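Input (structure):
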């Protein structure tokens, strides 16, 4: 069944910032001189700031899984990615992965308690009766939650850190060579899938691609294994409205909206 087009659930991890509407209003109450309009404006800005500071996380995400908010406006990645594509991609495709994952794990006493990370890293322990649907939809939820975070409006994503640059130089011979190899991985992925930059267990970097909604956490099921630092969605649903069949053009424009600040953080923490 097609998921309904709705706002993300209010219990989404991205909304659990601690800076709730109630606390904001309580703070505003201390200043009785604020006009209603000013208070409303201040609350709106505070909520926006809270959302920006608490991007959706996949780490503590457990059943029932929910659609994360975007850490930027839906049209903020234009012209590289248009608003309509972003809207359909998240509220239809991503929402369907969330809904189908919840449905697959409903009534599963043990696996229903796993985090999204655990579902991916231990996909081989999921019973074969539900593994394919959990693999596709758990991967789909993880991958898209990650994808929204590693993008940012043009000009606000920063640049690779000195440490990441050194690792990229060592692994690929420079940033331009890395970008070329990464784009090649996306171009050569037959059909639908993803291209990845990962940090392997030994600390080195690697590029690879996965089919469908597989990801590098699914050890034993994929060719590229490690902690994801960067990924690009090369399913047609990610670009077809704006770029039609021109995947290469989409990949070229996508570099404009990479959130290098987030990639740097993930590289340092991985
Ligand atoms: Fe997608």
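Output (sequence):
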């Amino acid at each position: 069944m097609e998921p309904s087009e709705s706002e993300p659930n209010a219990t989404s991890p991205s909304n659990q910032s601690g800076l709730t509407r109630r606390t904001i209003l309580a703070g505003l109450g201390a200043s009785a001189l604020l006009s209603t309009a000013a208070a409303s404006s201040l609350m709106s800005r505070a909520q926006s700031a809270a959302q920006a500071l608490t991007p959706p996380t996949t780490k503590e995400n457990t059943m029932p899984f929910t659609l994360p908010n975007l850490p930027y406006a839906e049209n903020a990645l234009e012209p590289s990615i248009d608003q309509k594509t972003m809207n359909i991609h998240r509220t239809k495709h991503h929402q369907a992965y969330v809904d189908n994952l919840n449905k697959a794990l409903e009534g599963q006493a043990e696996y229903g308690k796993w985090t999204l990370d655990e579902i991916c890293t231990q996909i081989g322990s999921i019973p074969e009766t539900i593994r394919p649907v959990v693999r596709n939809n758990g991967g789909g939820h993880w991958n898209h939650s990650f994808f929204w975070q590693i993008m940012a409006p043009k000009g606000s994503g920063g640049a690779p850190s000195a440490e990441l640059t050194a690792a990229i130089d060592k692994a690929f011979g420079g940033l331009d060579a890395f970008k070329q190899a990464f784009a090649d991985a996306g171009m050569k992925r037959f059909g639908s899938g993803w291209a990845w930059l990962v940090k392997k267990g030994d600390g080195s970097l690697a590029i690879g691609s996965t089919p469908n909604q597989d990801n590098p956490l699914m050890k034993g099921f994929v060719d590229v294994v490690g902690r994801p630092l960067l990924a690009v969605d090369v399913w047609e649903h990610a670009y077809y409205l704006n770029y039609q069949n021109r995947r290469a053009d989409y990949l070229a424009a996508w570099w404009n909206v990479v959130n290098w600040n987030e990639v740097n953080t993930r590289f340092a923490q991985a």
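Notes: Residues 89, 93, 144, 233, 235, 237-238 surround fe (ii) ion (CB under 6 Å). The first helix runs from residue 21 to 29.
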